[in-house]
Amino acid sequence: MNVANRRWTDDELFAMREQVLQTWPTGSEVDLRDAVEYHKAMADTKRFSKVLASAINNGQTLVQPRAGVPLVENHIELLRYLEQAGADCLPTTIDSYTRQNKYAEAQKGIEESKATGRSMLNGFPAVNHGAGACRKIIESVSVPVQLRHGTPDARLLSEIALAGGYTDIEGGGISYNIPYAKDVSLETTIRDWQYVDRLVGWYNEQGVEINREPFGPLTGTMVPPSVSHAIAIVEALLAAEQGVKFLTLGYGQCGNFAQDIAAILSLKELAREYLEKDGYDVMISTVFHQWMGGFPQDEAKSFGVIGLGAAVAALSGATKIITKTPHEAHGIPTKEANAQGIMASKQIINMLKGQPVPFTPEVQAEKEIIAAETRCILDTVRTMGEGDWAAGTVRAFAAGVLDVPFAPSRYNAGRLLPARDSQGAVRLLDVGNLPFTQEIRDFHRSKLEERGRMEGRNPGFQMVIDDIYAIGKGMLVGKSQGAKK
Amino acid sequence: MNVANRRWTDDELFAMREQVLQTWPTGSEVDLRDAVEYHKAMADTKRFSKVLASAINNGQTLVQPRAGVPLVENHIELLRYLEQAGADCLPTTIDSYTRQNKYAEAQKGIEESKATGRSMLNGFPAVNHGAGACRKIIESVSVPVQLRHGTPDARLLSEIALAGGYTDIEGGGISYNIPYAKDVSLETTIRDWQYVDRLVGWYNEQGVEINREPFGPLTGTMVPPSVSHAIAIVEALLAAEQGVKFLTLGYGQCGNFAQDIAAILSLKELAREYLEKDGYDVMISTVFHQWMGGFPQDEAKSFGVIGLGAAVAALSGATKIITKTPHEAHGIPTKEANAQGIMASKQIINMLKGQPVPFTPEVQAEKEIIAAETRCILDTVRTMGEGDWAAGTVRAFAAGVLDVPFAPSRYNAGRLLPARDSQGAVRLLDVGNLPFTQEIRDFHRSKLEERGRMEGRNPGFQMVIDDIYAIGKGMLVGKSQGAKK
Amino acid sequence: MATIVLGVIGSDVHAIGNKILEYAFTEAGFKVVNLGVLTTKKEFVQAAIETDARAILVSSLYGHGEIDCRGLREMCIEAGIGDILLYVGGNLVVGKQEWEPVRDKFLAMGFDRVFPPATMPDEAIALLKQDLGVS
Amino acid sequence: MATIVLGVIGSDVHAIGNKILEYAFTEAGFKVVNLGVLTTKKEFVQAAIETDARAILVSSLYGHGEIDCRGLREMCIEAGIGDILLYVGGNLVVGKQEWEPVRDKFLAMGFDRVFPPATMPDEAIALLKQDLGVS
Ligand code: B12
Ligand code: B12
Questions:
Q1: How far is CA D31 from the centre of its chain?
Q2: A335-362: pLDDT as tens digits
Q3: In testing the pocket of ligand 2, which one of B227, B332, B412, B471 has its CB within 8 Å of the most ligand atoms?
Q4: Is the pLDDT of residue B482 over 70?
């Protein structure tokens, strides 16, 4: 199968819709005309694009949790509770069976949840519940609600969510494939997400603003900013081509203050640069994900991780932050724990409101290196695709020019070996096939050699493992095993 | 009574000791020769001066809680628990009767605590328990322990603590008077603290290093950095004159990122400048106090306040941080809540370890204004004392040249009216009699007028009140009453 | 308007809430006699007699409230102002404790109203006006 | 050395722990057949038969472990490898739950050992060596 970055015609979209809507009974309930009407009657305060725009204007950082439970009534109760706790926008996080399009298993989970009175699914199975149930959710709260999932093929899910009144959809053909699948080709997911983007574009053309958000953090574990930036920007370009007009680009906290702030600043700038270069006019906002890797077991320590993330997000000027909870290491949070993550984060964000970005020399240096690296990757992707970002992406992944650390997909080269330098910034021990200049390679090597010297050991895979475990052990930079705490 | 800044002779010290040790039976147990021996046998890892010195060398920020309960065994259990939670150094916080030298009432509190099985005192009554009990405490833990109190006349308390093996004493003739007393003259407290400092100096001369720490935050509520810096530096000079060789100077978080970082940087530099100018050779460390004003009622929000404080402390490079707890707004924390404050803070501090101070243009600007203001105050104090810091201090307070917002002492002019500017930095609505240049006065006025314009109201006392309540309501800068959250 | 006596009892030096209460009650029209921090029971009673006050507002923040406040009502009775209104507020006991038992303890000591931490002045002002039958 | 089969069960894509376990068990001398994420019960059993494995190590992080793991032991019995060692670990159920009941639930399903979140590989390696009588 071949995939190209060109806008689908309405005919192409509607031909495929026929099939998509048949894959589960609730699909047939989707009526686009009715959906557009429904959206047009909705208050602007419940529309993501509007709320994001006003946050950008006011220099505000919006607070959004993750949350989803199997049953509609419980999900509504949960969202109301989180709104009460101060969430500026809300999510509906989808369960993992739905993410794999296993609607029958999701149905089993719904029924077992009803029977046992316990959540047997790790999210809200929106397809099974259908668009009507979604509208109930949207109508139960007064802030915008976003679909958050991790679904390689989210065509039906998106149809139902949009008809259900959701105004923002997370995901993308790369970011919801490489970290979330093992055996699905990029051609397939890029095409399936072109569908979603085209559908969003179609809504936009009817005067219904829908925001889209590529999933920035990818595997959430030591992903260098330039790697996630390159992917976010490719997905932005692919979405813009299908007519998406509102985009939130994301980044998962790496832990080093300067690198994290530089990442948010450069993400915005680079995205604008590449979108403009290709002639797209899109509103860009940013989202900072609080620590996406393994959390400490202890709740107070988790509050520490959450607090640092909130502080850096606010200082970086990100438009939105996605919060974690003190239960992160253990399991899906209770609504109380989820609210605690919101409240702790929001306290910090409000305290830092209006304070300027700490633009230090270190931030400037990190910005430059991130920009240089991202351009190396993106420009190679374009060249490989002979100007076509979709074709380029497929070839770049095959060649390891796009490569995500620790990703499960067999379409990912998996050659990168990220490790932290002595100050905790994420660098690359092995740059794999990333098309970096010699200067950039030397920079990474020297940073990690410096750490090696300080720790009296050679940089290697044990360092990577130590870094993965580090936060759980109360630090950012992993100490060599056996070393004292 | 007159007071002068000149070193006491040993005779003067020992003559007064006679009286002091008689004020409560446990005083007679203090044997200096035995105390010196006891200290000399102590491991360096339990000595504050050594642990602080190594923290300075390693760029580490030590974590210390506040903690004290009425009964010896419980206090030991508490400290051990907090050490286990990760405290790098420990406190013994003294109860409020002892602080007012009301040992008989403290005794009643001890007995009622024993009888009811509940803590009836808000701290550890060290005088009543005596030096022997103190040594038990010191021997129960493996990190240094500091005496923390708030006692205008701490002569007996310090004798007992030092004989009991404590290696650090908090307080000073100004910082433990103005915020902690109503009717005690500065001559009295400066003289009583010269006693403590001379005693510490005497120990130093015997080869026993004892650290001293003026109480930086004062009333803990919107104290402008220059005001607390000036007082900390005067106390440092008074202590150094009596032979103190190790000093930790403190600052209570104001909430604005740049102002807080600038405050720690400038505190160190200004102290060194004034101490060197007067020919003292002293090791200087700094302590950052997490938010000292009113806390939010909610525990998760309190974790937010704690988290921001920890992040700023670590980034500022402070040598030590004093932690708060999620119970702050309610009452003396349980040991679990106290441990949570430590763990959340330490997680952040470890994550930021080794990362450079974010030296932004805003930090530079705040540093300059703090330094200019502090010099205005200090130079006037010296002039008023005709070169004598003690006499100068007494006269400066009488004239409102030294002045602490919201302090209970009638020796404090109480003319300052602090309020936050639009970014949350503490400025002065009324500079009272602070000897500021016109330029500095204009700076404060313009900053607050800017906020007034943004909020559409005239700066005034209601703004001050709103700011005091703000953190409790989840923000830093107070919104006008009735305004929406 | 009615005179009230205000102060922070015992060895307690927490001054900030006290300053705000003075301001707020004055703004609300009361004549406030503020004894400030470190005020003894005796000083409260004497000031109330001397100024013919209709209420005594006691603050205790530092945790010793339970010990410090015992006997205040009895002292008022002895001094002949046994039916004066007694309010108390702040962080009344040591530690984070359940509110109801704490309130009951102080009610049993003879206080007419007991206020938890974070009480806003407006609340207390409204209740005091109600209790005094003024507006 | 003994062969073991490793994988993440069901619709679960959490890959990081899996990669570390592969590395750690290999370093410890085991022959590791790593099926990676998104592995079905059937794939586990087939791989164990094909490679003559002595243990199956199942990970489940995402919360559906309870549904996904049911019947694995029975499937092994049917396939004629009924007494193969079965280990399971990760975030086995939805939400933060008390550990003992969770462990017992999985023991009852026929797992030989059940590991809580944050288990370090060394612990499991030591136990596996013990259970297999190797060193
Ligand atoms: C990184 C991460 C992700 C990444 C994964 C990237 C990838 N492809 O690998 C992304 C962002 C994609 C992701 C997605 C999701 N995640 Co996730 N994720 C995490 C997180 C933060 C860290 C996991 C990790 O890598 N840890 C580091 C490794 C080294 O540790 P480990 O995985 O625990 O494995 C170790 C031990 O558990 C043990 N172990 C594991 N298995 C076994 C087996 C045996 C036999 C033994 C002996 C030991 C053992 O050894 C391993 C090595 O030390 C955890 C929370 C946490 N732990 O802090 C949540 C978490 C696992 N995720 C969770 C969920 C729910 C999801 C999602 C459904 C999204 C959502 N609702 O939030 C999707 C699921 C997608 C899917 N279909 O599976 C939940 C599971 C909830 C539950 N059980 O109740 C968690 C616990 C977060 C939470 N509290 O909600 N996630
Ligand atoms: C600032 C502060 C200090 C400053 C005080 C400066 C000064 N001189 O004023 C300093 C640093 C000096 C200090 C010292 C101490 N403090 Co202090 N301090 C605080 C803190 C952080 C804020 C208090 C404050 O100003 N709040 C803002 C004002 C506006 O609110 P407020 O005081 O609560 O008053 C309002 C209401 O309570 C109500 N109210 C109060 N009284 C009354 C009465 C009536 C009738 C009514 C209707 C309403 C009412 O109205 C007020 C106005 O809105 C509180 C914790 C907190 N609240 O977050 C601890 C706190 C009060 N301190 C405490 C303690 C123990 C101490 C010390 C003993 C030191 C120690 N062990 O840590 C010493 C005591 C010294 C002494 N002898 O009193 C404890 C009390 C513990 C308890 N009850 O169990 C607290 C709760 C902290 C804690 N959790 O441990 N403290």
A1: 15
A2: 999 999 999 999 999 999 999 999 999 9
A3: B332
A4: no
Q: Give A296's DSSP letter.
A: P
- Per the annotation, the verdict on C64 as an active-site residue is no
The reply to whether A419 and A304 lie within a common domain is no
Based on the domain organization, do A443 and A335 belong to the same domain?
Answer: no
How far apart, in Å, are the Cα atoms of B279 and each of B3, B243, B282, B298, C75? 21, 12, 10, 49, 57
List the domain range (segments joined by +) for residue C117: 3-132
Closest in A96, A182, A331 to D95, CB measured: A331
C-alpha pair distances (Å), A150 with each of A133, B264, D16:
21, 45, 17
Pocket flag, ligand 2, residue C111 (CB < 6 Å): no
CATH code, domain carrying D53: 3.40.50.280
C36 lines ligand 2 (CB under 6 A): no
Tell me if residue D14 is catalytic.
Answer: yes
Cα distances (angstroms) measured from residue B33 to each of B30, B58, B162, B202, B206:
9, 34, 12, 12, 10
Closest Cα to atom 90 of ligand 2: B332
Last residue of a domain, which of A332, A352, A372? A352
In terms of domains, do A253 and A337 share one?
yes
Domain of B202, in residue numbers = 10-352
Our count of domains for chain B comes to 2
Number of domains in chain C: 1
pLDDT in tens, C49-88: 999 999 999 999 999 999 999 999 999 999 999 999 999 9
Alpha helices (H) along B328-409: 335-352, 361-384, 389-399
Is the same domain home to B321 and B446? no
A349: left (phi over 0), alpha (psi -120 to 50) or beta: alpha
Question: How many A from CA of A37 to the centre of ligand 1?
Answer: 40
Strands A62-64, A90-93: pairing kind = unpaired
In three-state form (DSSP H/G/I as H, E/B as E, the rest C), the secondary structure along A23-92 is CCHHHHHCCHHHHHHHHHCCCHHHCHHHHHHHHHHHCCCEEECCCCCCCHHHHHHHHHHHHHCCCCCEEE
Ligand 2: which of C4, C5, C6, C14 to mutate, judged by most atoms within 8 Å of the beta carbon?
Answer: C14
Where are the strands (E) in A109-255, listed by range?
145-148, 168-170, 211-213, 246-252
Q: Test A108 with D67 for CB contact under 8 angstroms.
A: yes
Do B271 and B249 touch, CB atoms closer than 8 A? yes
In sequence order, the β-bridge partners of residue A146 are: A91
Whether complex ipTM tops 0.90: yes
Q: Output the pTM of the full model.
A: 0.97
Ligand 2: does its nearest atom lie under 6 Å from the Cβ of B70? no
Let me know if residue B403 belongs to a domain. no
